[in-house]
Amino acid sequence: MKGLKIFSLWLVPCFVLANTGEELTALARQAVNQQAYTRAETYYQQALNLYAQQADSQAQQIEVLLQLAVLAYQQGQYTQATPLLKQGLTLCETTISDTDNCLSILHNLGAAYQAQDDFSAAEPFYSRLLSAQEARYGVQSVELVSTLSALAVLYYQQGRYPEARTAYQHAIQLQIKQGDTRALLPLLEALAELQFTRFHDLNAAKTLYEQILLLRDSQQGSLELADVLNLLGLIHFQQADYSRAELFYQRALALREKLLGAEHPDVAVSLNNLAKLYMMQANYIQAKPLYERAIQILEKQAIPNNPILRKVQENLALLITQINKK
């Protein structure tokens, strides 16, 4: 979930006397850097009171209200952040409303309500932000990506999967034009998971995971790469493309053994997947030792009522039944 946009905090000299809003704001930021949040809040409140007495200080008040809200949000005080942001938004609506701070206030109101699971309250702020960004940057700007992603997550949380898919697809289209693969990966992964688990569209999910694999292949020592290989194996397995499934499962197993060690429970999961593939092809001789090794690994974890262990044991029992029928 997207959090509040945090402005960079910088160290400033400590003033002996703070007589201006700028000095108080500087002291507040220094206190934040020192994790002295109560002191920071006091300085920000004093600065806000000073600015409120000055003419043409709306921009400064908006900045301080935003920082107070960020401070509250960082401490999990979402209900305290919301009125501060609303106060800032009211000021934005009486001045130029497309400044960076005003756009951030819209984002942060969406995030604050989203953090409280008040999705219906969050959506209008994200939608207003998206419209403001389109007007300011253009409808093809990469600046829209973070807002589209936030909306996609919000739709997903509400079970509005088609809208989430559309938002992710739009964000991906814009991000591809930017050419930043690091920012593209989480969008592709979110959309692939959505296509696979919610729409059960194996072909669409496979295409996306193949794109992710190309991007992840440069990370040869990555656990994320092992996860993608495992998912591609599962998709090919469900499509009864067993030869391709075997290749992906074997690569996932080898990488997990290398990165996690031979006794890790994720290795047991890969062993179970590969054994199940062999059992489906009636290749019982290859399947049985893989199930047995997976059980041995999981039993060492000593997790009470381990559902994964129970499932592997059931798979092995079914395999033995099949062998006895021969």
From TrEMBL:
Please state the span of the N-terminal signal peptide per the UniProt entry: 1-18
Q: Which UniProt key words apply to this protein?
A: Repeat, Signal, TPR repeat
SUPFAM superfamilies (alphabetical): TPR-like
Q: Give the protein's recorded name.
A: Tetratricopeptide repeat protein
Describe where the TPR repeats fall, as residue ranges on this chain: 145-178, 226-259, 268-301
Q: Which domain of life is it from?
A: Bacteria
* Lineage, top ranks: Bacteria, Pseudomonadati, Pseudomonadota, Gammaproteobacteria, Thiotrichales
